[in-house]
Amino acid sequence: MNILVVGGAGYIGSHMVKRLGQRGCAVTTLDDLSSGHRDAVLTGDFVHGDMADTALLRGVFARRKYDAVMHFASFIEVGESVRADDARRSVRIAAYQRLPLSMRR
Ligand SMILES: NC(=O)c1ccc[n+]([C@@H]2O[C@H](COP(=O)([O-])OP(=O)(O)OC[C@H]3O[C@@H](n4cnc5c(N)ncnc54)[C@H](O)[C@@H]3O)[C@@H](O)[C@H]2O)c1
After folding, report:
1. How far is residue 11's CA from residue 18's CA, in Å, rounded to a whole number?
2. Domain-wise residue ranges, the chain
3. CA 74 to centroid of ligand 1, rounded, Å
4. Ligand 1: which atom is nearest the Cα of residue 35?
5. Staple partner for 43: which of 5, 12, 16, 21, CB 3.0–4.6 Å?
6. How many whole angstroms from 72 Cα to the centroid of ligand 1?
7. Contact in structure between 6 and 70 (CB atoms under 8 Å)
């Protein structure tokens, strides 16, 4: 299976990438490394970028057909999302909406 892991360089995502690789899946990680680490991605392809970047997403989905997309690109602490000011929160919500829209195309 081909799996795209968004936020796969983070704490939770990197464990998922490792486990999927152990199970024989072809994994692609998309991560902007804002809080993740490239070295934490132990298997598969790596795409460096922001999931809010529509052109980047278009390229990712054009290059390979995915059986599943897993999304871990969020804040490690829920409280950080709650504290974020309205403008910052709107930007993140818009980014989260672009991922499923790009998957549909
Ligand atoms: N860490 C925990 O113990 C824990 C427990 C339960 C749930 N969660 C939830 O799991 C999710 C991930 O948490 P985590 O601990 O792995 O956080 P993390 O910060 O370690 O990982 C998030 C990853 O997403 C990437 N990222 C952030 N914004 C991005 C963007 N716009 N485009 C591309 N990549 C982006 C970061 O660079 C990072 O690699 C969160 O929703 C968190 O609330 C975490």
Report:
1. 11
2. 2-104
3. 4
4. 37
5. 21
6. 5
7. yes
- Tokens (6 digits) for 34: 């804002």
78: Cβ below 6 Å to ligand 1? yes
HSE, CB side, 13 Å, CA atoms: give it for residue 45. Answer: 11
Q: Does domain 2-104 have CATH number 3.40.50.720?
A: yes
Confidence (pTM): 0.91
Question: Would the pLDDT of 29 be above 80?
Answer: yes
Among the residue ranges 44-48, 71-75, 101-105, the one predicted with the least confidence is 101-105
> Does position 56 have pLDDT exceeding 80, yes or no?
yes
Asked if residue 52 has its Cβ within 6 Å of ligand 1, the reply is yes
- Measure the CA–CA gap between 98 and 40, rounded to whole angstroms: 25
Signed CA dihedral, 32, 37, 39, 41: sign only: negative
